[in-house]
Amino acid sequence: YGGMGGWHANHAVKSDVVNLLGIYDIKKERSELAEKNGIKAYSSFQEVLDDKNIEIVTIATPNDIHKEQTIACLAAGKHVISEKPVTLSSDDLAEMIEAAEKYQRIFTVHQNRRWDIDYLAMKKVYDSSLIGDIFNIESRIHGSRGIPSDWRGMKEYGGGMMFDWGVHLIDQILQIYATEKIVSVYCEFDNITNKEVDDGFKLTLRFDNNARAYIEVGTYNFIPLPRFYIQGTKGTGIITDWREPCHIVECTHWHESEVIPVETAAGLTKTMAPRDEITTRSYDLEKPASDVHDFYRNICDTLEGKAAQFVTHKEMMRVMETMEAAFKSVEHKSVIYFD
């Protein structure tokens, strides 16, 4: 009932499709806080498993125990939503998927960043071909406070920024490049404020259509770079901050009859001379509509046979295998090629 556990509980209370039966937390003070807020606190994990009234369990615990808790819930007949990362390896994920199939229960991961309006704007630019065929997307999250001083900074619990923010940003990119095959992965980790786990990383993905995605997470950046930058064959888009709209500059005419050189600090240049309104068109995209409650609505619709599971097992595995390739790239200091 702390962090994302509290977030899920608060959203469940406000939900139009689920009823919150209670929470379980190993910390006594968290259970007391839940009860103070009018929410039942289960006395043990076993009590949760034994309660036949519980249909769905949302797991928001340290990353290293997601697997055992998920399989226990599935075996008890519960549908399971795991917080990200769903687990720490593709082998563990395969076991979790196998258990879901064995017990015929829904099992998914909470990829709530699919409802971020900055990501949705980038996906709209890609899907609509507003600026032609996309050949480069850059996604960045920058902060300046290091890793939170809890289990997220410890390797044994699955800490680090790759598992914390990387799992979200990779999922977003793979949703955009949904039909493209990853060809190669190259990654570098930062260890500025934490020597045990990565407190930032720089990840490059290359796809079979020759497109590139660059993902960067930093926790020691006092001046953040733009949240998104996207390049296509007919223009460029940028989102400077998640609160801002996507700004588009379309190239309407490639050639100019006369390019006037500009004078820089130490010389002239035609190559880098800025464009004008004659050859470009600039505008802001309207921010996409988004409602994060749609995640739980989809789960309930899936239970009733009205919809397909929004975050699929295949998508979960693709993200996990990409993260594993990133870790391998860091370990070997080399590009990792996909078959």
Q: How does this structure look, described?
A:
- The protein has helices spanning 4-14, 28-36, 45-50, 66-75, 90-103, 117-128, 161-176, 294-303, 313-332, and strands spanning 56-59, 79-82, 107-109, 134-142, 182-190, 200-207, 212-218, 228-232, 235-239, 247-251, 262-264, 267-269, 280-284, 336-337.
- It is α+β, with helices and mostly antiparallel strands and 339 residues long.
- It has two domains: 4-110, 3-Layer(aba) Sandwich (Rossmann fold), CATH 3.40.50; 114-226 and 319-337, Dihydrodipicolinate Reductase, domain 2, CATH 3.30.360.10.
- The strands form three sheets. Strands 13-10-9-8-4-7-6-5-14 form a nine-stranded mixed beta sheet. It has a three-stranded parallel beta sheet with strand order 1-2-3, covered by helices on one side. The protein has a two-stranded antiparallel sheet with strand order 11-12.
- The longest helix has 20 residues, at 313-332.
- The radius of gyration is 23 Å and the shape is elongated.
- The relative contact order is 0.14.
Q: Care to give the gist of this entry?
A:
With 339 residues, the protein is an alpha+beta fold. It is built from 9 helices and 14 strands.
The strands making up the biggest β-sheet line up spatially as: 13-10-9-8-4-7-6-5-14
Distance between the termini: 42 Å
Per CATH, the superfamily of the largest domain is Dihydrodipicolinate Reductase, domain 2
Summarize the main sheet: 9 strands, mixed
Backbone shape: elongated
Order of helices and strands: HHHEHEHEHEHEEEEEEEEEHHE
Provide the number of structural domains: 2
Would you give the CATH topology of the largest domain?
Dihydrodipicolinate Reductase, domain 2
The proportion of residues in beta strands is 15-25%
**Topology, number of strands:** 14
**Radius of gyration over all CA atoms, rounded:** 23 Å
Give the CATH level 1 class of the largest domain. Answer: Alpha Beta
Percent range for helical residues?
Answer: 25-40%
Structural class: alpha+beta
CATH architecture of the largest domain: 2-Layer Sandwich
Low-confidence stretches: none
